[in-house]
Amino acid sequence: MKTTLPLCRSISAGVAVLLAASVLAAPPERTLPVDPVELIAGREVPGKAGLSIERDGISYQFATLKSKAAFEKEPAKFEVADGGACGRMGPLSGMGDARRYAVHAGRIYFFASDGCRAGFLKDPAKYIEADDEKVFSSNEQVARGRATLDKVVAWAGGAERLRGLTTFRASAARKEKQGEKEYAVTNETAIAFPDRAFQKESWNESWFSTVSGPEGAAMASTRGQESIAASRARAFHRAMARWPIVILKAHVDGAPKADCPGLIVIADGEGKLGETPVEFVKVWLNGAASRLAVESATGKLLQLSYRGRDGTTTIGESVRTYTSFATVKDINLPTAYSVSFNGKDLPAASAKIDAFEVNPELPADLFKVAK
To answer: Which pLDDT score is estimated for 177?
Structure first.
């Protein structure tokens, strides 16, 4: 599948600079020029360079020792949302500029441009990402939901094969023209179960990647690698939790992981897709809630629906309808999907993979996060 699922098209075009080289002092675009405690209280009070704290690569300056102490006591209350990523483009986009800020609902946001700031402030709810609410229901619906997911596991190759899956890699390549320039675009996703993931997208010579593991998470480009805030890493986890192979692997493995309460599954009724009878099941994993449509007779996975960006700049209701499938080492998976977004077909968000690998040998340093 497209490996930058949460990224907007402007980022996918490779025209945004994701990272800056690590330096001892945060550059101006990473330095909030006003006291964050005062800012959230509704006052723009210049901070002092001598009273500063650096957190997740952002320098916060304070007007008083009292403000600095308040920040140190509750940093999550006062720090910028999404680790400083552009508030309009989302947590997995490029960084916003600390000098271009706004406050909404008690949170500070940075923006990559004046247009991003203005667009966000018109309707913040269209752009703010967060964990989806967990899905809960009766024990009967849980049992029915898990039975439906068992059907998908059987269709995909069986629990034994999926339990034996330790690594996974998918790749795709395409040509894309923007204006007069043609780009060779390549995507790669690699997973080492249970807790390591890597995605990379290249546009000609430009590229950017995201990696996550027990040591933390980072984004990289030709400029180097930079650790990202936990909230941005969480957004990456949500994106990965919508890959069918990740959902099925979590189901057969069962036990919760250290950073995740585990997979929640409930039945969500029956219906039809066209003339095909289906069973619906809702799942929640790593903060991501998705609704699956499963062919009743075969267990074949036909659709995945969720609320998110899916190749757009705004958040909405996305329905991915799987259009092709492949089998590798007796494991069956979807390899392409079309997208309906807020009830309208969105061809630009469709995605495919050219090939996937089961238990490939992955480079030892692929999931390394520089400290």
So the answer is: 87
